[in-house]
Amino acid sequence: MNIQKITQNNITTKILKNKHVLKGLEKISEHGTTFAAGTSLFMSLTVRPLAIFATPDTEKENKQYAAANSICSGLIKFGMVEAIALPIELAVKNIDKNPEKFLKSQSIKNLANGKELANSRSYKLLTQILKLSSGFLTAIPKSMLTIALIPLIMDKIFNVGVNKGTRINNEKNSQKPQNKDVNFTGRVTETISKGIGKLLDSEKIQKFANKFQTNDKDIAKHITAGTDLLLTGSFAYQTSKSDKIKENRKKALIYNNFIATAITLGGGYTVDRIIKNKTEKFVDKFKTLNAGDPKLYKYIEGIHILRPALIFAAIYYGILPMFSTYTAEKVDKFIEKRYGK
Predict the structure, then answer these.
(1) What is the pTM of this model?
(2) Is the confidence at residue 180, as pLDDT, over 80?
């Protein structure tokens, strides 16, 4: 029994010190929003549509609209992340490497709190908010683009016709970079880094960070929840106003999103709270095993981003679609039968 325990401990130690695992956590820390969007893209194109179509006793066209919403949402979210979040992530990385270039010496002192700036919880809180907030800031345009693309997906993939004039011509007008100018990209990143530096130089921002620095472990979870709420509200409004989605399918689509968001957030917070203690024990062991690594703070930040991202994704894309699709249709029919249109 002791030999088995020793073997298990050795395997765990090797995994937690594995260079590929550590590199992956570092990348998640630096590109948290990209990681979350990439996970969402994969799940929204595969797992969620399959779960929706496996829903029993539900009209085929309602399932097609729900699947089209999933596909559009994943594609647009990932596209916006690459366009907006990635430059912010690169700019923050610039500041991580050379804070003296972009921040005032007093700002570094205020945020560092006697530690190296990169290891400061105040600084990590602010940079996490900046990197993760792009999803929140783009929620409304994302919902608008999702609604615009649903008829195209319904027509091209599910062969459900749409009204004339609803085709989306994105072949000629798509904005593709013609020339990849490394110097230009570098200048843009430099400019964004300077802008973020000025923001971090604000005394009010620094006081906020120092006051709420202990919330750095949960900031990814809270921003994800806020983004989902804004997305759901915006999506419902855009769906109700759209003339390109069939009237008799709008309510089921809206209910589907409200039910999915409510259960995802409720379930996500509950599951996260249950496993949080075990995660902290894991983090403590991880810290001990990698104590001498100068990038330890990045690995820890990566773990705190990874945990809620996987929990919310598993619930929203894997467990929930059947229930929300089935329930949304039943709620729609019940309300229509009882109260009329």
Answers:
(1) 0.61
(2) no
Q: What is the pLDDT of residue 340?
A: 63
Res 176: pLDDT: 45
Plot region of 9 (φ>0 → left; ψ -120 to 50 → alpha; else → beta):
alpha
Residue 169 above 50 pLDDT?
Answer: no
Dihedral sign from CA coordinates of 74, 78, 84, 89: positive
Report pLDDT for 145: 83
Which of 309, 297, 264 minimizes the C-alpha distance to 32? 309
